[in-house]
Amino acid sequence: MVTISFVHLQSIDSVFVVILDSYFESATLFIYFFQMFFFALWLEVVVLVPLSYLFIFDSKVSLWFTD
Predict the structure, then answer these.
(1) Which terms are listed as keywords in the entry (predicted)?
(2) Distance between CA atoms of residues 3 and 46, nearest Å
(3) Average pLDDT, consecutive stretches of 10 residues, N- to C-terminus, the chain (67 residues)
(4) pTM here?
């Protein structure tokens, strides 16, 4: 269950990158992107990275934290 959560978060990050590439001209979507992007970064740095040290994952899961 934990592994599925991490995969889902990585997918959300990819979707935000696509939105930025497609709608860079739109100021509203640009601001919305950065609000959500920085929230996702905060979630990864503050929550997921410490979790990676608290729990033992297999090598595939550990690689996601090094991207």
Answers:
(1) Membrane, Transmembrane, Transmembrane helix
(2) 17
(3) 43 54 51 61 63 51 44
(4) 0.24
